[in-house]
Amino acid sequence: MKEIILYTDGACSGNPGKGGWGAILFYNGIKKEISGGEENTTNNRMELTAVIKGLEALKEPCKVDIYSDSAYVVNAFLQNWVGSWQNNGWKSSKGKVLNIDLWQRLLQLVSIHSVSWHKVKGHADNEYNNRCDSLARSEITKITE
């Protein structure tokens, strides 16, 4: 099984507002950067989209180490929030879970791959997280008013 390292980040100008996402995939010494944006979104939707797009870029089941600064995304898996949400009909203690469409797509993708989740500190000294942030922010600047 191929081993992939995936770094992701999402950003938003206004929340909701214009948003961008960036992802970097590493395989066998090769680095691939991908990014995109949306006109009206939230930071959490962009964080989720970054992971989804990174996993969608894989052409076969892989072992994937995912690095993200989003506690929302990482803790949903490490603390099994997502399992609880599913068991409770996509409800949390605060009510209906937001971004169900993206969570369901991400769950489909995670079921294909062998995924390990890693939380990194955002806007710190992690070169690849910072690069993902830069990719996401550059996508925001491409969106016209």
Please describe what this structure looks like:
- With 145 residues, the protein is α/β, with parallel strands linked by helices.
- The protein has five helices and seven strands, in the order E-E-E-H-E-H-H-E-E-H-E-H.
- The strands form two sheets. A five-stranded mixed sheet has the order 3-2-1-4-7.
- Strand 5 (91-92) and strand 6 (95-96) form a beta hairpin.
- Helix 1 packs parallel to helix 4.
List keywords for this structure.
145 residues; alpha/beta; five-stranded mixed sheet; two-stranded antiparallel ribbon; 7 strands; globular
Major beta-sheet overview: 5 strands, mixed
- Based on secondary structure, the structural category is alpha/beta
In one word, what is the shape? globular
> Into which percentage range does the β-strand content fall?
35-45%
Radius of gyration: 15 Å
